[in-house]
Amino acid sequence: MAKAFFRLQKFLRRTQFLLFFLTAAYLMAGSLLLLQRTHLVIQQGSRGTSTNQALPVLDRIAGVGIVDSRTLQNPRPGPRLLVGMDALQEPALDQRHSPRWLVTRNSELRQLRRRWFHRFISDQEPMQTAGFKAMKHTAEHKGTYMGCFSDDSRERTLKGAVFYDLRKMTVSHCQEACAERAYTYAGLAYGAECYCGNKLPATASKPEECNSECKGEKGSVCGGVNRLSVYRVEELRAGARRRRNVIYRGCFRAPENLTDTFPASLIQPNLTVEMCSEFCSKKEFPLAVIRGQECYCGYPTGRFSLHDGADGLLCNGMHNTSSAAEGKYCLVYQTPVQDTRCTDRKFLTTKSKVFVALSSFPGAGNTWARHLIEHATGYYTGSYYFDGALYNKGFKGEKDHWRSRRTICVKTHESGKTEIEMFDSAILLIRNPYKSLMAEFNRKYAGHLGYATDRNWKSKEWPDFVNSYASWWASHVLDWLKYGKRLLIVHYEDLKQSLIPKLKEMVEFLNMTVTEDRLLCVENNRDGNFKRSGAKQKDFEPFTQEMKDLINRYILTVDEALRGRNFTGLPREYVPR
Predict the structure, then answer these.
(1) Is 195 left (phi over 0), alpha (psi -120 to 50) or beta?
(2) Which of 34, 105, 119, 398 has the fewest CB atoms below 10 angstroms from its CB?
């Protein structure tokens, strides 16, 4: 008995030691794994960026195209930033003055990716609530269901306006959008696409072929594959008429032969702007042109491009006499109808042999540039990220893998040797850093189309944001200048001021050819659906003098780097500020 008890005691001691050993080994293995993951995160955070790649702020500004007079009169020793440019090497960055951009820039990129992903995921959560509201709204609408019709994208009947909402499309939303633009019919397809027009499609289909559920309205049908659920919205138009927006484009010299230039016309005694606009809207034309008692409808074309406006006084009294200024001038108005000559888009049919980046700092107008390129070329653009908000609004390239080569170019905010050398060429879009910082701050707190509140601007977030993002603005340009293989530099301000020449240059860089009429269509739809709306921030100066001094030094650095590579320097409006 004693012998058996001794063996049991010995076994328990061994087991206790074994358990202790296994526990210690488990903890050590976990610690090693944690250290390894931390090392990988640090490596990813500094990928493409080394300690000798920080940005220099020039102590000597001789030979720089942009010079701040205040800097010359009252020079201040600024923080030295490191530049990854052979022509602009400077001593190491003084850590006391530098923003924590080496770490912050890459961590902000990771935060951007997380935010874009989580926004897409969060969009799915309120869908049930949105669907309930949409169904309730649908029950109240007065539109008449006309049936299910065949939809041919090459010969589309409902082509007056096109809208996408790949998450929250409802029947009511489509009807109201078409009614506000003076259309008679609203058609829905694929559960998320809305088409407007004044003519009913010719080919009817079986009711069961319209079987796609509306993305934002459970239990409702929004067309199908190549099938349209069509509603007549005539009864809605009376209530929507007050919200229609007819825009005065100006006074222009009339073309020599108005009948050949414009495909539709009307002669009406006591003609008014509303009468002409209503007539052209029914004909599905975006322009209403008035000369005396004559109304003409059409598009901007090479014969009538709307580029050379005349003095408005030359069009005075045009409604009182049919021969004002001897009939040489006319009034032009933009109707609620969308110019759809350039709205068709698709993926490349064969993989692109040249991998092109559309690179910019966040807030520099990348989404707007993508809108212009897609409508000019007719092909989707891709993205290094996935932004659900943009995908929902029709940027279908967002969901395509960024290396699929099925898109005409790929949006990226990345910098660093590895990320840049993946691309064969790039369009580098640069915007005034003051404007870029404010635009990105607005997007961060209010989305693509909103404005940050006064509370956001006055919080401590804003100074921290400027300190971390301002250096990223400069490092982004400098990295692309150093590692980019073939670059086209486009300044946002130049693109905005001279849209067609600059857009034509961008399209040629992408090895595409487009017609003049298509470019004029893009110009007519230049803002798209991505212009900020709502309560704009008050007219105040968000930048302190310390912020201005820091940003201005970055501007001078980038300007010299551009000129060192034989590119045009930054526009002079960037500094002084």
Answers:
(1) beta
(2) 34
